[in-house]
Amino acid sequence: MPSKSVSSHALCSFFLSSWLPQMVPFQGSHWETSLLAFRASLPMRAQPKKKKKVDVKREQAQKDRMKKKIKKLEKAAPEMIPIEDFVTPLKYSDSNRVRSLTPLSFEETERRVLLMKKWCLFKQKQDKAEKKAIQTLVEAQQEALKELRLESEELYQAAIRRDEGLFPFERDGPNYTPPLPGYDPPEGKCVDITKVYTQ
């Protein structure tokens, strides 16, 4: 076969065209993009960064300053943040501060003393009655269990078995100040006066 001569200009243009960015053709409108549409870019090589010259004296001086700061912080005692909840203000700890109360009359004092005695006697009788009722119930229970055991051992074991569904037990106890019907408690205001300490 006769050899064809290829000029150097043609070879150069061929190799450059292979390295140039090329677009892969795809079908579709100009509003849509396709995953096949990618661009082949030229390989980029970053230039090596020049190393900065390190000033030994300057770096040593910076280290010395840091050491001095650390020694200064070690010598100084750490500042403690006060807990103001445990500190009583001076205006409340003044020994000369005395609350002025209106003196009670002799009749009012005697009335309060007698009322307190009557209340103590009432609570004492109530406590004795409750203890006596509980003791009577326990004795009746023990007597019933004895009679049940004579009748059937199986029923006796079922009677003394622990009730797993008894707890949790919730009960509303008596209140010294019963709630007022139809009373809507107001919502209180909260002002945050917390101090922020920075060390």
What class would the helix/strand composition place it in?
mainly alpha
> From the alpha-carbon coordinates, what is the Rg to the nearest angstrom?
48 Å
> What is the CA-CA span between the terminal residues?
91 Å
Percent of residues in helices: 40-55%
* Share of β-strand residues: under 5%
Walk me through this protein's architecture.
- The protein is mostly helical and 199 residues long.
- Helix content is 43%, strand content 0%.
- It is built from four helices and no strands.
- The chain has helices spanning 8-19, 56-75, 106-151, 153-159.
- Helix 3 runs antiparallel to helix 4.
How is this fold's topology laid out?
Blueprint: H1 8-19, H2 56-75, H3 106-151, H4 153-159
Helix pairs in contact: 3-4
Q: Which key terms come to mind for this protein?
A:
flat, 4 helices, 43% helix, disordered N terminus, mainly alpha
In a nutshell, what does this entry contain?
The protein is 43% helix and 0% strand. It has 199 residues and is mainly α. The protein is flat.
